[in-house]
Amino acid sequence: MSHPHYEMPQALYAAYKHASSQKFYPLGTVRCSGDVMFRSQLARDLGCLLDVDETVVAWLCLPVEFTTMDGTHVPDLMVDYEDGKRLFLDVCEEEGAVGVSEAAACSRIHHRFVPRAEIETGCRLANAKDMLRYASYRTPLNDRMRLLAALEEAGSLSIAECMHLFREVQPMTGISWMLLNRMISADLDERMLGPETMLRRFSAVGAR
After folding, report:
1. CB 179 within 8 A of CB 30
2. pLDDT at 53 over 90
């Protein structure tokens, strides 16, 4: 049985073509559900934050196009949250175009602009970028079990206290992958990850 030929909408195609020619670091992601394509480093940075947001199920780059008074618009990202909410996001330097948000509302799309100051506040972005360097690695089972068992017994341990538990992979590689994959948790906002950073087993209760 033949299928009708699908023609990608023009604005969406143009956005894909432009973003596909760009490369922004870090390259790894853990919850992007499609092709990794960004039009700016700021959009890439927002994707980093989504990967360490414990309320995010999945996100997608350049998801749809919709019509505004000034033409057709393609949002940077679409995000699905654990509570069932779906939100379309665009990055901006300070304030986004009001017409875009109004057009999104008319299309029954929940849309928000995320300013640079919000993305870059605190240490979360820097910590996310550091950890995402190890997104393509995997903490071996033996190392995972040793850390999880130690945390189960102690409740929480500093990174310094956990370093000796890793025997098959470098400690921060193993810890980063487990943080990204919600096996353990740590405070990523107040300071850069360091020997004194406390780790605990992941719990969805109280997630950001």
Report:
1. no
2. yes
Residue ranges per structural domain of the chain: 10-121, 125-201
Provide the β-strand partners of residue 77: 61, 89
Neighbours of 55 (CB within 10 A): 13
Say if CB 124 and CB 46 are below 8 A apart: no
Residue in the structure block whose two tokens are 């995997």: 138
- Of residues 22, 15, 28, the one with CA closest to residue 138: 28
Cα radius of gyration rounded to whole Å, the chain: 19
pLDDT at site 138: 96
How far is the CA of 41 from the CAs of 25, 45, 93, 129, in angstroms? 8, 6, 12, 12
Q: What is the pLDDT of residues 114-171, one digit of tens each?
A: 999 999 999 999 999 999 999 999 999 999 999 999 999 999 999 999 999 999 999 9
CATH architecture for segment(s) 125-201: Orthogonal Bundle (1.10)
Highest mean pLDDT among 8-12, 20-24, 129-133: 129-133
Q: Is residue 70 pLDDT above 90, yes or no?
A: no
**CA distances, 198 to each of 82, 120, 121, 125 (Å):** 25, 23, 21, 18
Handedness of CA 86, 88, 91, 94 (dihedral sign): negative
